[in-house]
């Protein structure tokens, strides 16, 4: 097994060139999603793959400023779910957790296939629902921007975004978020 390779290789790149989107690719990603774990096997996740050029273009208007780069996407995947479709145990609502896990599987598989699959929160869920016909009772929790990494920096990127193309944004050290056997103040 070499899951570690995909984990290490995955990056939220923003300089993208086009990639051919096929039904095989979508089925491949869908099959990875469906193998993910979920509470009571409820499988609350829903994914809408947008790759038809005219629909893709209409999705440009949902993007927040700062996500201009996503206009170079060859595919935008809308990730949505609703809380009634998954376990609710007292104050614990599992629909976002389970959908997040499944989305991570999809992103890792896309990475393995040599693609960039970059999740974003900077978009209008309301406009997304309207354009794609997603009912109001679904929470559109992310869009995943798909393309191929370009070696040329996208000129629309901010200085910070340009830096992030070159060096992975820094992370907490393990000892800042891991506890051994008992919680303790950091
Ligand atoms: C839930 C979520 C929302 C994000 N939203 C955006 C976004 O709106 N725009 C963007 O450019 N990147 C977005 N990102 C990407 C992060 O900025 C990126 O993952 C982080 O800086 C770490 O970089 P790396 O993934 O390349 O290691 C988002 C990532 C996640 C998981």
Output the number of helix runs: 7
As a percent range, the share of strand residues is 15-25%
Taking Cα atoms only, what radius of gyration do you get, to the nearest Å? 17 Å
What about the largest sheet? Answer: 5 strands, antiparallel
Element order: H for helix, E for strand:
HEHEHEEEHEHEHH
pLDDT averaged over residues: 98
Q: Any low-confidence stretches, pLDDT <50, length ≥5?
A: none
Structural class: alpha+beta
How many runs of DSSP E, i.e. beta strands? 7
Hetero compounds:
flavin mononucleotide
Q: Between the first and last Cα atoms, what is the distance in angstroms?
A: 34 Å
The 3D shape can be described as globular
Instruction: Give the % helix.
Output: 25-40%
Write the layout of secondary structure elements.
Layout: H1 3-9, E1 16-17, H2 23-34, E2 46-50, H3 53-59, E3 75-81, E4 88-89, E5 92-93, H4 95-112, E6 116-120, H5 125-132, E7 139-149, H6 159-166, H7 174-177
Antiparallel strand pairs: 1-7, 2-3, 3-7, 4-5, 6-7
The structure holds flavin mononucleotide.
Q: Which features does this protein show?
A:
5-stranded antiparallel sheet; globular; 7 strands; binds flavin mononucleotide; 34% helix; alpha+beta; single chain
Description of the molecule:
This protein is 34% helix and 18% strand. The protein has 186 residues and is α+β, with helices and mostly antiparallel strands. The strands form 2 sheets. Strands 1, 2, 3, 6 and 7 form a 5-stranded antiparallel sheet that branches. Helix 1 packs across helix 4 (95-112) and helix 2 packs across helix 4 (95-112). The chain starts with a helix and ends in a 9-residue tail after the last helix. Bound molecules: flavin mononucleotide. Flavin mononucleotide (FMN) binds next to strand 6.
């Amino acid at each position: 097994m070499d899951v570690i390779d995909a984990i290490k290789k995955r990056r939220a790149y923003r300089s993208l060139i086009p990639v051919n989107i096929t039904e095989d690719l979508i089925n491949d990603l869908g099959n990875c999603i469906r193998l993910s774990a979920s509470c009571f096997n409820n499988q609350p996740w829903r994914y809408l793959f947008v790759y038809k050029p005219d629909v893709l273009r209409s999705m440009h208007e949902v993007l927040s400023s700062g996500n201009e780069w996503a206009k170079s996407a060859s595919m935008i995947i809308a990730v949505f779910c609703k809380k009634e479709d998954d376990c609710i145990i007292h104050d614990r609502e599992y629909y976002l957790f389970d959908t997040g896990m499944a989305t991570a599987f999809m992103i890792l598989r896309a990475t393995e296939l040599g693609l960039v699959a970059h999740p974003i929160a900077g978009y209008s869920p309301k406009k997304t629902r309207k354009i794609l016909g997603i009912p109001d009772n679904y929470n559109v929790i992310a869009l995943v921007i798909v393309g191929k990494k370009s070696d040329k920096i996208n000129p629309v990127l901010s200085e910070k975004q340009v830096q992030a193309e070159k060096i992975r944004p820094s992370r907490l050290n393990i000892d800042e978020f891991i506890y051994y056997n008992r919680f303790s103040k950091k």
